[in-house]
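Hi there. Long-time user, first ticket. I'm pasting a complex I've been working with (about 575 residues overall). I'd like to know whether the download I got is complete or cut off, because the file seemed smaller than I expected. Thanks.
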Amino acid sequence: MLKAADLGAIRAIITRAKRWDLFFAVLGLLSLMVGVLTFTVLFLDMAIQGVPRLSLDFFTNFPSRRAENAGILSAWVGTILVMLVTALAAVPLGVAAGVYLEEYAPKNWITDIIEINISNLAGIPSIVYGLLALGLFVYYFGFGQSILSAGLTLALLILPVIIVATRESIRAIPQSIHEGSYACGATTWQTVSDHILPYSSAGILTGVIIGMARAIGETAPIITIGALTFIAFLPPMPFAGDPAAGMFEWIFAPFTVMPIQMFNWTSRPEAAFTVNAAAAGFVLVFMTLAMNGLAIYLRYHLRKNIKW
Amino acid sequence: MQIQTGLEAGVEGTVLKAEVRDLDFHYGAFHALKRVSMPIYDRRVTALIGPSGCGKSTLLRCFNRMHDLYPGNRYSGGGIVFHPDNTNLLAPEVDPIEVRMRISMVFQKPNPFPKSIYENVAYSLRVRGMRNKNELDDRVESALKGAALWNEVSDRLKELGANLSGGQQQRLCIARALASDPEIILFDEPTSALDPIATASIEELVTELKEKVTILIVTHNMQQAARISDYTAYMYLGEMVEFGVTDQIFIKPTKKATEDYITGRFG
Ligand SMILES: Nc1ncnc2c1ncn2[C@@H]1O[C@H](COP(=O)(O)OP(=O)(O)O)[C@@H](O)[C@H]1O
Ligand SMILES: [Mg+2]
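Hi, the file is complete. Here it is re-exported in full:
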């Protein structure tokens, strides 16, 4: 039989032990607040400064020496075109490399070394990619200080992210599904195209968008390859103008991107340019959030029909 | 090598479909199958029994070269001779895909693809290059009928296979294995994840299927082996202890070890 005194002792122990629960809960909440509050304050500050500046003109005007006339037309068009090149280069390369490593590569020390290096590549400072790209794309291949060079540079930067995301989503597919496909008599390519890619596409896409969201804000490597800070024209539209531009002439055009436009404005002494920078920053954050929203939506839709 | 079973003469009308001959298999350095020999008779059910870890699945997965998917696995001696064409399924020059097109498999846990019921069954036809819609429809229907599933799913072929119950999913996997008209179907403990009613329906199905196709089934359930198989092989620690007609194995096994296992004194 349990004596009343024992029960009292047990309760005392529990009460003392639970103090640590409370202590950690408070500590955890405070840590969370530091992060969330800091971001919220920064974002609100930027929004309060920048949002009143947003108008249709702001999106359709080129940069100007007068702050109230300046706009982000060349910057957002440049960002979208650079991102397009980045995606077109990085997605096929990254997915193919990930699929190769998971499904085709023999497991030996060479592939082990490649694996370790891919994880390390993700940690290299982006400016190093900029330097590499300056030598390789700008000078060696002669692509110049163009949208193509910038897109390929950012593609290199996010390639490891896409490779890792591809491999992880492939590994999340149960072994039994994999074996089921082979047991039907499928070749490796049939297994990849009929099962592996469709079932891992949600995860791959999430990785792609996370990578793109990182790339969209990158400034250092783009400055390194020589993006201009003042661009008052758009890249040539395919087949437009006189003489008519070619389909892909735009990829060799000089360009600027959102973060560089912001950087340029923040370095001006006039307060009115700081407001422009805040407005552009707000647009950039909005673009990033929109991409993440798209990732969540697509993941939900692609996963809906996948149950093991 | 001639396989000494002493049974061929005793059972009328049996034809050899395959022979395992002195088969050795290694997982890396681990010797998982040791000089295993046994016959597989055409359109009969052969059960592999034995305690967990004795190598039943390992032997079964040699038949469709599943081991080729993983590095370090080695067929280290002997072979599996397939009749009537006398090919050694394990010979390096034999393409494992060709083997899997002739011998299909049903796994322990139902593993339908996250596709529609129709596409699950059609998949084994699609990998064989079948594109004609009518032909696919016909073959899918007859495979689903063969797997006793047609009546339950004929009006919802476009639904996901994963929405079916466990027993239905396993019958869907049987339909997938059946659709391509295989010569042998391998079953690796197909009912171990199912409830008793679903188990009974799968057992009934297996005994029906043997009219058309040779069946090799792994089971850890001795009653199941006794109920559905014509031949039983008892394995222990990677070795073939005894092979015989099921009744003989269960009523008067020739080896003491088999008797101990059957009577539950061991295992
Ligand atoms: N992939 C593997 N690598 C190494 N050893 C394995 C592997 N798969 C199975 N084994 C070992 O081989 C033996 C036989 O396994 P298995 O054929 O799965 O047994 P059973 O199906 O009879 O329960 C066991 O000792 C098991 O631990
Ligand atoms: Mg097993």
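A couple of notes from our side: The longest helix of chain B spans residues 133-146. Confidence is low (pLDDT under 50) at residues 1-10 of chain B.
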